[in-house]
Amino acid sequence: MADWNPALYRRFEDERTRPAAELLARVPLSAPRLAVDLGCGPGNSTELIVQRYPDATVIGTDNSPAMVEAARQRLPGVAFELSDIAAWQPAEPPDLVYANASLQWVPDHTRLLPRLLGTLAPGGVLAVQVPDNLDEPTHVLMRETAAEPRFAAALGDADKLRARVLSLAACYDLLAPLAEVDIWGTIYQHPMADAAAIVQWLRSTGLRPFLDPLGPALQAEFLAAYQRRIEAAYPARADGRRLLAFPRLFIVARRRP
Questions:
Q1: pLDDT value at position 6?
Q2: Which domains does the chain carry?
């Protein structure tokens, strides 16, 4: 895929930061020495960690040069690095590995989650939040649009680029033998101005695998066809706005000493 667009991502920063803050609030650490933000994006989640743990060494990592540069501009006193979560290994065991809305882009969670937990210092915490919305109309309609003949040849397996999240029970069973696990799900309800706003939200995240392979003309056609479907799937509420349901899965796992 093409590089991420930090400015587009930040258009809904308040909505994106809310689950990041709620994840961090459940981390049972008072004074971690080293904290790593995996998939830090433009630094909004990293900033939360710095504010809660001002004495900790905080490192942000991302595989997007544009996001890393945006994060450095936002938090010039924090170290940010380019890295791929699938291959990431810390130089020393962190006390906190925090991954907010990033692991959905990494395959094989059955291996990934225990591996990340294993990088921690004894008593350290793995804190994860992942969107669990592949079966929501937003994403079902992406796949329906991509299946139209005019788009299908160019897109191929674009819908396979995002990993399907394990169920809550499967995540618990995977991590409980290794850690004390706090796990929960939340369905956020985001009031959006109109169908176009929902499409704009998704352009910076879920729609990227479907848009990046297309030329400008086909991108415009795809977005128009997709927005028509969104218009029908998310009717106007009493105030004229659309409610965007957004399920997310949260995991806070503390490695046993």
A1: 59
A2: 6-255 (3.40.50.150)
